[in-house]
From TrEMBL:
Protein name: Thyroxine-binding globulin
A Pfam family of this chain: Serpin
Matches recorded under Gene3D superfamilies: Alpha-1-antitrypsin, domain 1, Antithrombin, subunit I, domain 2, Serpins superfamily
Assigned keywords, A-Z: Glycoprotein, Secreted, Signal
Matching InterPro entries: Serpin_CS (IPR023795), Serpin_dom (IPR023796), Serpin_fam (IPR000215), Serpin_sf (IPR036186), Serpin_sf_1 (IPR042178), Serpin_sf_2 (IPR042185)
GO molecular function annotation: serine-type endopeptidase inhibitor activity
PANTHER family: SERINE PROTEASE INHIBITOR, SERPIN, THYROXINE-BINDING GLOBULIN
Domain Serpin as annotated: residue spans: 1-210
Described purpose of this protein according to its UniProt entry: Major thyroid hormone transport protein in serum.
Organism: Champsocephalus esox (pike icefish)
This protein's GO CC annotations: extracellular space
């Protein structure tokens, strides 16, 4: 028997990307590995924030709803991963300011699956995996216990929006031939989908290689 919790979200950008501007570009997976990606591009006014405490650039992309995607481009991924918490979301949404950028974001599709047994046990939920399990509320006459808790999540991002089912250097640079700063997500970054009113997080993940 499987007990499944399923969340599906499909969001359309408030301002879609122009597919005619999507070009092949290079994404720096790490110092030694690069992959070719389809890089979306848009020059517009965006809400953004640079968190100096964790050296991370944050870009806000709203959907045609109360949901938004936040893209986080850190100088060091390990620092962001070990530090990020709901308080950061609250701070970023509060202190973001509008500025015109030339933004580049790769199209990507990610899918992951992992078991939560060890996580739940470490939180104290041990009985449901043992003979002490009491699942009588969903079973009559049968002794049941939970064998595995599996979580799977997918996220697809393209010019129209996002569908979710639950090289190194400075991210913002000023190009010498133009006055508009460039924010280019061409190295590992994190992404979250949040509901702006409640600030609840629907999805949180990281993009190490957009081709995988």
């Amino acid at each position: 028997m499987y007990l499944i919790s399923y969340i599906y979200y499909k969001g359309t950008w408030a301002t879609p990307f122009d597919a005619m501007l999507t070009k092949e570009d290079i994404f720096n997976v790490d110092d030694n590995n690069k992959v070719a990606v389809q890089m979306m591009n848009m020059e517009d006014t965006f809400d953004s924030y640079y968190d100096q405490a964790i050296n991370t650039s944050v870009l806000h992309l709203p959907f045609n709803s109360t949901y938004s995607m936040l893209l986080m481009l850190p100088d060091d991924m390990a620092t962001l991963e070990s530090t990020i918490c709901p308080r950061h979301i609250t701070k970023w949404l509060k202190w973001m300011r509008q500025r015109r950028y030339d933004v580049f974001i790769p199209k990507f599709s990610i899918k992951t699956s992992y078991t939560l047994n060890d996580v739940l046990i470490s939180m104290g939920m041990t009985d449901m995996f043992s003979d002490l399990a009491d699942l009588s509320g969903i079973s009559e006459g049968h002794k049941l216990a939970v064998s595995d808790v599996v979580h799977q999540a997918t996220l697809d991002v393209d010019e129209a929006g996002a569908t979710a089912a639950a090289a190194t250097g400075i991210g913002i640079t000023l190009m010498s031939f133009q006055s508009i700063p460039v924010l280019k997500f061409n190295r590992p970054f994190m992404v979250t989908i949040v509901e702006r009113i409640t600030e609840n997080i629907l999805f949180l993940g990281k993009i190490i290689n957009p081709k995988i």
